[in-house]
Amino acid sequence: MVDAATETVGIRAARHARPKPSIFKRKSTIAFLMALPLIVIILLLVLYPALYSVHLATLNKSMERFVGFGNFEFLFKRETFWMVVKQSCIFAVTAVLFKALIGFFVAHFVHAIPDKGQRKWRGMLLVPWVIPPAMSTLAWFWLFDPSYSAFNWLFALVGIDPVPWLGDPYWARFSVILVNVWYGAPFFMIMYLAALKSVPEQLYEAASIDGANWWQRLWYVTLPMMRNIISITVLFSLIVTFANFDIVRVLTAGGPIDQTHVFATWAFKLGIEGGDIPLGASVSLFMVPILGVAAIFILRDITKRGNEA
Amino acid sequence: MAQVTLRKVVKKYDDTLAVRGIDLDIADKEFVVLVGPSGCGKSTTLRMIAGLEEISDGDIAIGGTVVNDVPPKDRDIAMVFQNYALYPHMTVYENMSFGLRLKKVAKDEIKRRVENAARILDITELLARKPKQLSGGQRQRVAMGRAIVRDPKVFLFDEPLSNLDAKLRVQMRTEIKKVHQKVRTTTVYVTHDQVEAMTLADRVVVMNHGLIEQVGAPNDLYHAPKTKFVAGFIGSPAMNFIPCRLEENSGALTARMGEVSLPLPASRTERYKAHVGRDMLFGLRPEHMTERRPYANGQAQDFAVTVDVVEPMGMETLLYFRINGEEVSARVEPTSAVAAGEVMPLAADLAHMHLIDPKTDKVV
């Protein structure tokens, strides 16, 4: 706004007029000093492991010799690696897509509930997201049991053959994605619900006077107003889902025959279980460029539009 | 032709009545302002005309057709909202053309209409901008442009100037009046600001507690209010209401207000006779309590007061004092050198007085 612009100009002018305080008294110095403990912790907990894993990835199996890109060359020649790349992509993209769609629709339903009953529904719908996934996945593991599970028992009642939920590669992939969607959709729901609530009611009224039907209101008002939040949640969820470990680990441990491995579980298998830590580090590092590219694309879109709304 | 007719319109929210059965006829091309304090039902009435609120009872007709069950988009109306309700992701051009694009109007026709409206409102150079890049006044113009472009039967304004600062509000008020003179369309305008109502309206509708108190031309409401509410609501500073007792002395009436007592004009005797001996409210606007002026008509009566507060306004000076326990204000010449605590002789122009029955709050 114009007012805001002139205001900041005014503040700047005022700042210039005053004599500069010494470096220890400047606000920015104090702010930096106060943030320093946190910066140190972040450096120790994030940057150090990240750099250390880069270092690890360049060593041989016994971690005694520098091999450069040797680990990556070895990985690129293995069929399993490409399968993991493919499965990770399928897993992340499909799961995020369904999480976003389901979250979007559920958010609309919840938004339509009058305020009185809404809290209750919001709380209940958040349950999957607040249970530790390792625990809830264990429950799913039992539900998927081929002989004694609830699903196959129900199927048997209506005369459908039992489904090998975790035994067949395709069903296993489906199951892993299903559990991830179940776990992650509430997050999208709550984010989209918040976004929906922030759209001014008068925009919808203006649109309905302008002659927009419900579909046009969704397309021309709701979606554009939610675009940033959709981008951010999709990016965020893409990263988290791509790096997912617990659900796949508990449900299938990568099986059958490595068909459901994603980067994290495969890196764990190679590095920790297989005893080749440099190779495991190389696998997990491979996620970085893929996610980096996704992040750049989505964030560029957000900053571009951030200036408008 | 687009008259708007309201017949016994009622709006009920659960148990509370927001609008309690109002009748109103708005003529074609007329500019009608609904005015009243917050919660008086004026906005609800406007939103019912727009179709954004369902009506609980009664009928609303636009251009002779009852529109009770017609959705907003088919009522052929355009509305300007208090917070403008511009689509933030669209440019000014896209905002203004949105309704026409939905109606699948031909591209060059849209262009022609948008450019025409932009010219009327002097926003041609803003067409490529987004709402965020506009000032409050410019956004207000765009919101009006969006309404004009649609060439509707009725314009609805819902407190369009409340979000603007005082200076801009005065400027946009004139702007709205100019636009209505150029684009003659039936207009219903809601505001809580009686100055806006007076300056803009062909006719003002004063509402209170979900009912219409009085309908009339601005000057009629000002000079001949029918109720105490209208008398007090229209005009600023508000009309003085002083408790008085009506006394009769050999055919002539006197209003006694504590130590001040004013003989009433003979022309009013017939009208007020029935209330002799009763406790009434004496109403007189501050501008009719002044120092004695040479041109004062024969109905000016002198009295003297002790001034409590003096407020110089530049073009006039406001005096505050007490009569019969009631705080009263008077408008005197800015040159008047009176100071607080001094005794000031004043003249009351009783040709403009009102007598109000406190039992019914009606002007008698």
Short description:
Chain A is mainly α and 309 residues long. Chain A has helices at 2-17, 27-57, 70-76, 79-112, 115-130, 133-143, 150-157, 169-197, 201-210, 214-242, 246-251, 263-273, 277-285, 287-306. Chain B is built from nine helices and 21 strands.
Structure description:
The complex is a heterodimer of chains A (309) and B (364). By secondary structure, chain A is mainly α. Chain A has two domains: 1-57, no CATH class; 73-306, MetI-like fold, CATH 1.10.3720.10. Chain A is built from 14 helices and no strands. Chain A has helices at 2-17, 27-57, 70-76, 79-112, 115-130, 133-143, 150-157, 169-197, 201-210, 214-242, 246-251, 263-273, 277-285, 287-306. In chain A, α5 (115-130) runs antiparallel to α8 (169-197), α8 packs across α10 (214-242) and α10 (214-242) packs antiparallel against α14. Chain A is flat, with a radius of gyration of 25 Å. Mean pLDDT of chain A is 81; it is low at 1-15. By secondary structure, chain B is of the alpha+beta class. Chain B has two domains: 4-233, P-loop containing nucleotide triphosphate hydrolases (Rossmann fold); 240-363, Nucleic acid-binding proteins (OB fold (Dihydrolipoamide Acetyltransferase, E2P), Beta Barrel), CATH 2.40.50.140. Chain B contains nine helices and 21 strands. Chain B has a six-stranded mixed beta sheet, with helices on both faces. In chain B, strands 13-12-11-14-20-21 form a six-stranded antiparallel beta sheet. Chain B has a five-stranded antiparallel beta sheet with strand order 15-19-16-17-18, with no helix packed on it. In chain B, α2 (92-102) crosses α3, α2 packs parallel to α4 and α3 packs across α4. Chain B is elongated. The A-B interface holds A 1-3, 200, 202-203, 205-212, 216, 220-221, 224-225, 227, 305, 307-309 and B 50-52, 71-73, 77-79, 81-83, 85-89, 98-99, 102-103, 130, 132, 135, 146, 150.
Tell me the count of domains of chain B.
2
Domains of chain A, number? 2
**Biggest interface:** A-B, 24 and 26 residues
Look up the CATH topology of the largest domain in chain B: Rossmann fold
Residue share in helices of chain B? 10-25%
The overall strand count of chain B is: 21
Give Rg of chain A in angstroms.
Answer: 25 Å
Helicity range of chain A:
over 70%
Structural class by SSE content of chain B: alpha+beta
Largest beta sheet: strand ordering of chain B: 6-7-8-3-9-10
CATH topology of the largest domain in chain A: MetI-like fold
- What does the oligomeric state look like here? heterodimer
SS field, number of helical segments of chain A: 14
CATH H-level name of the largest domain in chain A... which superfamily? MetI-like
Shape of chain B from CA axes? elongated
Cα end-to-end separation of chain B = 38 Å
Report, as a whole number of angstroms, the end-to-end distance of chain A: 11 Å
Encode the helix/strand succession of chain A as letters: HHHHHHHHHHHHHH
One letter per element, helices H and strands E, the order of chain B comes to EEEHEEEHHHEHEHEEHHEEEHEEEEEEEE
Contiguous low-pLDDT stretches of chain A (5 residues minimum) are 1-15
Quick one: CATH class of the largest domain in chain B? Alpha Beta
